[in-house]
């Protein structure tokens, strides 16, 4: 029997299996997206029902993100102890419980508590999905499969906004109205039970990561998983490659994220900054507050729901652009072009809002063509983000760290992403009341910073196996 070269592309059958595993793992991203945007249609009704101020509304919306940060921070450590798939199942249970109890919350305090519980599940899933996908994917298609995480997020966003719109329409266009015996906003959260159950079932049937199994000394179990994801004549080569990587790490400094730059290794800081910049461009303002925002600047409530849903569809479609290009063009060129597109789009949105005039109720209103300009460039921003930074941040976090610290470092990077998400989410209501031009100007500034950060700190990782990744003194990822 002829031995295949290491790195040989798997045949179609094995590509299909790996793709199926990646899709199943990425359902965690669907929960992420659903939870991120289900609040969009409910936010105004919750603010009214619980008599919340702008700051209180921002905290109620953002409260889940605190749980997300904690879930993401500890998920990697737990996954290194008990395995990737078990942690996925735990995340599904947490989200299921949250979906039910948030829907039946009777006040602000318990609403926030159960949102925090859901956040723990979402934060956990946000770490485990890219880690698992990167560890079961052959290097030739790893970028494409890792992009499924963001595709699932965008589908979750779309599903949440669509279900919000359907429920609100069924309730007469107002989420505060009764719908089948409950306020409509409560049904919006109950819908989340469905993907939580699906994710839990998939977590029970997915095979464990072969790298985790090999690290635990379960060589035969790792071999059995590899027979499902690589051709039979490359199983031994793949297992040897994993074990060689593990042996190299044993001779290196203990697998710690600690370093001499503010307490962390340079590569960990690169991951943190990458994750923070992805949120500081303000993308989730579009998906958390867009319905309320477009109403505030003069669009009808029904039109605002439709605009938000269209934005989510655009987000889904352009993610396929990233999936198609990431393993052909590479990570770095896409990120650079995405930063440029986001900067221009956000700058134009800021200019559009600078032309606003006071409306009848005191809210800003965009006269003439400025409303259309703001809408067009807001969606061009979604295009620029969705085709580049949205999926590729998760691709890089899943592959840029050395094996020995991957799960832990990915957890820290994801936690930083959630903290940044929280900061943007909780500050937007107050910032938007102060000045929308300044608000979007700030997001444009961070888009510009992201452009120079990619040029300075992010190398190309296309076509390298996880075992080939190493770290230089300045934190760049290179071939070992």
Please name the fourth-level CATH homologous superfamily.
MFS general substrate transporter like domains
Residue share in β-strands: under 5%
Count of DSSP E strands?
6
Rg over CA atoms: 22 Å
What is the CA–CA distance across the termini?
30 Å
Question: Count of DSSP helices?
Answer: 18
**Main sheet: which strands, in order across?**
1-2
Number of domains: 1
Instruction: Name the CATH class.
Output: Mainly Alpha
User: What is the CATH topology classification name?
Assistant: Growth Hormone, Chain: A
Named at the architecture level, the CATH assignment is Up-down Bundle
Shape: globular
Unreliable residue runs: 1-10, 470-480
Helix content: over 70%
* Major beta sheet summary: 2 strands, antiparallel
Order of SSEs: HHHHHHEEHHHHHHHHHEEHHHEE
Mean pLDDT: 81
Structural class computed from helices and strand pairing: mainly alpha
């Amino acid at each position: 029997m002829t031995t295949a070269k290491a790195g040989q592309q798997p045949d179609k059958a094995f590509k299909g299996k790996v793709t199926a595993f990646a899709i199943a793992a990425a359902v965690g991203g669907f929960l992420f997206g659903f939870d991120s945007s289900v609040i969009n249609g409910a936010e105004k009704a919750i603010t009214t029902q619980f008599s919340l101020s702008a700051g209180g509304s921002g905290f109620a919306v953002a409260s889940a993100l605190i749980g997300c940060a904690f879930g993401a921070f500890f998920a990697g450590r737990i996954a290194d102890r008990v395995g990737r798939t078990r942690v996925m199942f735990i995340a599904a249970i947490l989200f299921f419980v949250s979906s039910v109890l948030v829907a039946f919350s009777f006040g602000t305090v318990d609403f926030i508590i159960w949102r925090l519980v859901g956040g723990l599940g979402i934060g956990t899933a946000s770490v485990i999905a890219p880690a698992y996908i990167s560890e079961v994917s052959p290097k030739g298609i790893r970028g494409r499969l890792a992009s499924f995480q963001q595709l699932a997020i965008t589908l979750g966003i779309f599903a949440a906004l669509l279900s919000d719109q359907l429920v609100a329409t069924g309730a007469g266009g107002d989420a505060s109205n009764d719908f089948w015996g409950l306020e409509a906003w409560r049904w919006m959260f109950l819908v989340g039970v469905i993907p939580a159950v699906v994710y839990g079932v998939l977590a029970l049937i997915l095979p464990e990561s072969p790298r985790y199994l090999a690290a635990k000394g379960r060589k035969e179990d790792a071999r059995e998983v590899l027979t499902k994801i690589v051709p039979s004549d490359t199983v031994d080569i793949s297992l040897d490659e994993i074990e060689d990587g593990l042996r190299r790490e044993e001779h290196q400094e203990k697998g710690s994220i600690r370093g001499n730059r503010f307490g962390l290794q340079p590569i960990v800081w690169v991951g943190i900054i990458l994750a923070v910049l992805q949120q500081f461009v303000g993308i989730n303002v579009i998906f958390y507050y867009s319905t309320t925002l477009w109403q505030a600047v003069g669009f009808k409530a029904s039109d605002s729901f439709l605009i938000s849903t269209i934005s989510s569809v655009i987000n889904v479609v352009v993610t396929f652009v990233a999936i198609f290009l990431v393993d052909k063009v590479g990570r770095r060129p896409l990120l650079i072009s995405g930063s440029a597109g986001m900067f221009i789009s956000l700058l134009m949105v800021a200019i559009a809002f600078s032309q606003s005039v006071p409306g009848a109720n005191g809210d800003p209103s965009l006269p003439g063509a400025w409303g259309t300009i703001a809408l067009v460039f807001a969606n061009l921003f979604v295009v620029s983000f969705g085709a580049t930074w949205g999926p590729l941040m998760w691709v890089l976090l899943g592959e840029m760290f050395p094996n020995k610290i991957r799960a832990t470092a990915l957890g820290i990077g994801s936690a930083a992403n959630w903290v940044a998400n929280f900061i943007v989410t909780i500050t937007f209501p107050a910032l938007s009341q102060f000045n929308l031009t300044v608000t979007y100007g700030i997001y444009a500034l961070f888009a510009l910073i992201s452009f120079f950060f990619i040029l300075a700190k992010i190398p190309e990782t296309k076509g390298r196996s996880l075992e080939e990744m190493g770290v230089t003194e300045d934190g760049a990822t290179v071939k070992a």
